[in-house]
Amino acid sequence: MEAKLNKKIEKKTGILSTLINVLVPILLALIIAIIPILIQNENPFKVYFYMIFGNFTSFDNIATLFHTMAPLILTGMAIGISFKAGLFNMGVESGVIVSGFVTAVLGYYLKSWPKGVLIPFLFLVGAICGIIVLIIPAILKAYLNVNEMVVTLLLNYAYIDILKYLTTYVDGIRDKQAGYIKTFTIGQNASLTGFLGSSFTLFFFIAILIFFILLFLIKRTKLGYRIDALGKNTCYSEAVGLNVKKSIIGIMLLSGAIAGIAGAGWLMSDKKSYALDFSGSPGLGWDGMVISLLGAHSPIGILISSLFYGILKAGVNYVSFNTIVPGQIILIIQGLLILFLSFKIFTNKSSIEYIRLKNFINKCELYFEKKKNKRQKIEVDKE
Question: Over the stretch 321-341, which tens digit does the pLDDT of each residue have?
């Protein structure tokens, strides 16, 4: 009985500590973001009302929310599986933009292919692009223990400049008829069209399908064990017979493939051509990092965080339309979220704060248990 109660308390403490670690940064970010809103002489409650509830005022708005969520789910998972394994992979943004660029070029030149063949092919190419982007950092990390965060961060800038050059100067790639720097628009057969005239496309269902496949792999297969083992202790992983080098490469390449699918899907469902601002500001890869941090790198947490962040990101359009506050307010909130998420109240199970929370929950459980027993005793006496 006591062991069962201890297990119950431990579970509740874990859930509550995770919730506090996530909710406190969100509340702090939203509270501090009130300052620039007040500087604009606008009502913060009005701004947050449109940012949150504006997404649910019509079918088109809900469709836009789901459409916005699709790449966020994938980039969040791409970051999450890497970070959970202790691999600080900052190359998800590179995977997104490279796959988006290649998808744009192939989607234009292969536009005569049947739609049922071309779209799966472009998703496959996108995944391969994401893998290629991360193969060098993965090998360097696995065999030479080169810091993957430094390598992937530097490669981000290299890929941005390479794609900028290709899009700007290479004939056959740049659409010179357009008023800005971009590739040719993909053909109709390469485009994911919205349902009922909305922005809601098949890409959302593909993202959800990939999410559940990853959830199954993490929870029910050796992949989840490898991710946990690498994240906790590399030396221990080697001691129990895990091929650490192979696991590092496999996890990073899986992360790249997911990022590549996100880039390809976003190009086909939204942008239709590659421009220098394809990934937005600060970028889908960086959005994925915030989402993964908010979700504590767990699949379900990432899905919920994608919904929350999607609400904020899609909601800025309604804020800009209905108030005088510019849409860049989302960048302030994002920066504040990253800042506050770096400070965790409950760092681990041996921290003083965690032990105090556990003791508090234990006292609450004992109190309610006594109340329950007292109530039952009164009922028995009445009978």
Answer: 888 888 777 778 878 887 887
